[in-house]
């Protein structure tokens, strides 16, 4: 099992006072600092006065490294408003940011040196008068090391930001492919219903209109905020609208239940993540069954900040796992399922899984396990 949820809980505990999206990166960079500090301390001891204890060099290294990191990383994010730092990485090339980072390095060096002096009983700043060149050497070395480490942090975060933008663009493309796919299926159902039951067809048009209004409103909000996810409660609302449309067509042959615990309502998921599964269950499981059947959609919490989404039906079932087949290029019967698989791989690389269980005349159940960083288990 992945240890990422554990790291997330540690990050949330240490940096609860900072934005959630910044906490994993802060914990990762803190770990780098804690690993590099003893190497820097050993190097400085080996190239300096070996008459001093190695432990003293370690104290100076840890004190200076932690003070500079605290001022330049978590405190920088805490001051994201005045520094005008954009989410989610809170790094910027603006002049004010670099001025702040330079000041953080100098102040952090001074504070860390004072801590080391208190421990060792020495007065490093006395070197300003006794041996200014030696002091400037210490200061210059610390500044050079700090700039190198912070620059590597900046480059890494920029790279991660570009990866996130690419993933978000891919998710948005997949969503635009799913929207017309759902619409075409609904219009096809509506055309068949017009000939046999015009009043129900009118009701279906009204519900479709309400569904498209809600979908368009959600898409505009996502676009304006640069987001490619919405809350699980909104996903369930859109499912409810869609099932209302299908209920007009199938009547009492379609029975459905949506179960969403309050603890998971704010969990972010890609829009239209569950609808292709619901659509597939109706089209290939319940509609072919003479008596229809029941569709159940549920969300359940798991330990370590994860949740399980389940879509199950009591329809005809099948013996071929659609997730084992390659994604169709012609928008065929399992187009939506292929998109769900791709979207999970893009949005949660290495963190999401799909389990499929079905048998002829025994229904189908699809189970998705994925992270929910807003849910914290007891």
If you had to describe this structure to a student in words, what would you say it looks like?
- The protein has 378 residues and is an alpha+beta fold.
- It has a five-stranded mixed sheet with strand order 2-4-5-7-6, with helices on one face. Strands 1-3 form a two-stranded antiparallel sheet.
- A hairpin with a 3-residue loop joins strand 4 and strand 5.
- Helix 11 runs antiparallel to helix 12.
- The longest helix has 65 residues.
- About 3% of the residues have low confidence.
Briefly, what is this?
This protein is 61% helix and 11% strand. It is of the alpha+beta class.
How would you summarize the topology of this molecule?
Elements: H1 4-14, H2 23-47, H3 54-72, H4 74-78, H5 80-83, H6 95-120, H7 127-130, H8 132-196, H9 198-224, E1 230-231, H10 232-250, E2 254-259, E3 268-269, H11 275-286, E4 293-302, E5 306-313, H12 335-347, E6 353-358, E7 364-371
Parallel strand pairs: 2-4
Antiparallel strand pairs: 1-3, 4-5, 5-7, 6-7
Helix pairs in contact: 1-2, 2-3, 3-6, 8-9, 8-12, 9-10, 11-12
């Amino acid at each position: 099992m992945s240890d990422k949820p554990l790291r997330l809980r540690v990050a949330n505990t240490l940096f609860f006072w900072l934005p959630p999206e910044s906490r994993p990166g802060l914990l990762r960079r803190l770990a780098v600092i804690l690993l590099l500090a003893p190497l820097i301390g050993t190097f400085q001891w080996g190239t300096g006065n070996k008459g001093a204890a190695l432990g003293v060099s370690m104290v100076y290294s840890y004190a200076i490294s932690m003070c500079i990191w605290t001022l330049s990383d978590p405190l920088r994010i805490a001051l994201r408003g005045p520094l005008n730092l954009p989410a989610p990485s809170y790094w910027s090339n603006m002049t004010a940011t670099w001025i702040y980072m330079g000041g953080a390095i100098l102040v952090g060096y001074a504070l860390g040196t004072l801590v080391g002096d208190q421990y060792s009983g020495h007065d490093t700043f006395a070197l300003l008068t006794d041996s200014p060149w030696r002091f400037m050497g210490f200061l210059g070395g610390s500044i050079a090391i700090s700039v190198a480490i912070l620059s590597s942090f900046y480059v890494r975060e920029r790279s991660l930001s570009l990866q996130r933008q690419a993933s978000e663009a891919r998710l948005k493309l997949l969503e635009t492919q799913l929207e017309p796919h759902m619409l075409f299926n609904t219009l096809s159902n509506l055309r068949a219903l017009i000939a046999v039951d015009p009043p129900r067809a009118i009701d279906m048009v009204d519900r479709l209109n309400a569904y498209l209004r809600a979908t368009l409103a959600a898409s505009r909000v996502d676009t304006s905020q640069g987001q490619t996810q919405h809350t699980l409660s909104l996903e369930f609302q859109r499912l409810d609208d869609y099932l209302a449309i299908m209920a007009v067509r199938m009547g009492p042959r379609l029975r459905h239940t949506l179960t969403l615990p309050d603890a998971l309502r704010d969990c972010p998921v890609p829009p239209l993540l569950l609808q292709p599964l619901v659509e597939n269950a109706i089209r290939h499981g319940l509609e072919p069954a003479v008596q229809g059947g029941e569709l159940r959609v549920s969300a359940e919490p798991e330990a370590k900040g994860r949740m399980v989404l389940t879509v199950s039906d009591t329809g005809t079932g099948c013996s071929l796992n659609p997730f084992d087949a390659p994604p169709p290029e012609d928008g065929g019967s399992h187009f939506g399922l292929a998109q769900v698989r791709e979207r999970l791989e893009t949005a949660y690389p290495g963190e999401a899984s799909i389990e499929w269980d079905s048998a002829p005349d025994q229904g189908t159940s699809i189970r998705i396990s994925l992270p929910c960083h807003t849910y914290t288990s007891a």
